[in-house]
Write a structure and sequence with these properties.
The protein is mainly alpha-helical and 445 residues long. The protein contains 14 helices and no strands. It has a single domain, classed as Growth Hormone, Chain: A (Up-down Bundle), CATH 1.20.1250. Helix 2 packs antiparallel against helix 7, helix 4 packs antiparallel against helix 7 and helix 11 packs across helix 12. The protein is globular. 55% of the residues are buried.
Length: 445
């Protein structure tokens, strides 16, 4: 297994198995990277609610699972192709500049998107602008994950992964909460959506300024060739991606297993998100009550965000006792039990409880996978691997929405869908546990 070099800027830890949250937060560079992540993902939450309000919860629309699948495909699938090429650039360009200029560009695109809403421009123009914002989002998130090992010691990665991506997810949920609050206060319509997008743009600007505070060389990559122009870099992308894939498959069996498990978990989460959305829109509220539907969905997402936070709290403790693979198996296996136990009621209370537990399982699984990938992939390849990781996330989510669109009724109540998700969770847990037993010498603990 490849050994990851500890960055020079990361502090040493006398007890790497018991890294505390306080020790991380006393590290200046980690705090700055975390601030950039929080501001960036806070604005993502606001922006995403504006999209949901415009596309799904507009009073004049009757959205279906197919509409949701189409929206996700438009926003995510094109950049599942672009994403790996972004990874090549992450391993060539200074990652701090990526975070700074990427968020600065999103600030400008957000203002353009708000103007399109106010001007009632054709829908395809709105989607084109939103598409570009989403593309940069995928690019920036991969850069944040690839940069994290540059600001913490190797023994701090589990705790850092428990805090940083989880805090970013909670920030996105808080941004969503701000968006939901605006949606409840302002009259539904293009003006409210444009106000939300403008707020998101201002937060993107704040994220860019936070990234600009970091040293240009801090986030690596440590080894890179002379920076070529864009055309030359993209011309080498295919070969570089193939090298990254070969490195992943040949040198990092733990990362391959972890990526397969977390992709399956993401697929299940996508199916359940579409189901909860349809329940919120048509079962838990009157079809004409778009504000009520959005508020119910916001409540479910708030419970899920609380689950993300709880995952950050408990994951370091569980990984010390069960190991990364043991904790991932426990999460996947528990989801196979509580999803049908709570989801088959198709009532608000049990669904909210399931959303809380799904938040724990989904984020804890990602914490484990992130740490395994970071520990077992060399720095010079890490940007490409995390870009591929991001592609798997996008494809799994869109595939989940597409499959759900074929089988889910408009009201969202489907026993076969809930049971099918439980089966996928169970199979994922069993197969991942088997892989860990067959290759114990390759598993990261």
């Amino acid at each position: 297994m490849a050994i990851t070099r500890r960055p020079a800027s990361a502090p040493s830890s006398p007890d790497t198995g018991r890294t505390t949250l306080g020790a991380l937060l006393r590290t200046r560079d980690f705090r700055r990277l975390l601030s950039a992540r929080l501001l960036s993902q806070l604005s993502d939450g606001v922006f995403q609610v504006s999209l949901a309000s415009y596309v799904i919860f507009s009073p004049e629309r009757q959205s279906t699972p197919s509409d949701i699948a189409s929206m996700l495909a438009v926003l995510l699938l094109p950049f599942s192709v672009v994403g790996p090429f972004a990874g090549v650039l992450l391993d060539r360009w200074r990652r701090r500049e990526v975070l700074y200029l990427g968020n600065l560009a999103r600030f400008g695109l957000g203002l353009v998107t708000a103007g399109l809403l106010l001007g009632q421009a054709p829908e395809w123009l709105f989607f084109a602008a939103a598409l570009l914002v989403t593309a940069l989002n995928r690019f920036i998130l991969a850069g944040l994950s690839a940069a994290l090992p540059r600001v913490v010691a190797p023994g701090q990665l589990v705790t850092a992964n428990a805090l940083s991506p989880t805090a970013g997810t909670v920030a996105a949920a808080c941004g969503g909460g701000i968006g939901f609050l605006f949606h409840q206060i302002l009259p539904p319509g293009p003006q409210a959506d444009a106000a939300l997008v403008t707020l998101a743009a201002a937060l993107y600007l704040a994220a860019a300024l936070a990234a600009h505070r970091m040293d240009p060389e801090l986030l690596g990559p440590e080894h890179h060739p002379d920076r070529p122009d864009l055309r030359a870099a993209l011309g080498q992308a295919g070969r570089a991606l193939a090298d990254g894939m070969r490195h992943l498959v040949r040198q990092s069996r733990p990362a391959v297993h972890a990526l397969a498990a977390v992709t399956a978990a993401r697929f299940c989460y996508g199916v359940l998100i579409v189901t909860v959305l349809m329940l919120s829109r048509y079962t838990f509220n009157e079809a004409s009550d778009a504000q009520g539907g959005l508020a119910t969905l916001g409540t479910a997402l708030a419970f899920s965000a609380l689950g993300f936070f709880l995952a950050a709290v408990v994951s370091p403790w569980f990984t010390r006792r069960l190991g990364l693979t043991g904790w991932m198996v426990a999460c996947l296996g528990s989801a196979a039990l509580f999803v049908p136990a709570l989801g088959l009621f198709f009532t608000t209370g049990p669904v909210m409880a399931a959303a809380l537990l799904l938040g724990v399982v989904t984020q804890a699984t990602k914490i484990c996978a992130d740490t395994i990938v970071q520990n077992s992939v060399e720095d010079d390849y890490r940007g490409r691997v995390f870009a591929l990781y991001d592609v798997l996330f996008n494809v799994a989510f869109v595939a989940a929405a597409a499959v759900t669109a074929l089988v889910l009724p408009l009201h969202g109540r489907s026993v076969p869908v809930v049971l099918g998700v439980a089966v996928v969770y169970a199979l994922s847990a069993a197969l991942y546990a088997r892989a860990a037993r067959r290759h114990p010498d390759h598993q990261v603990s």
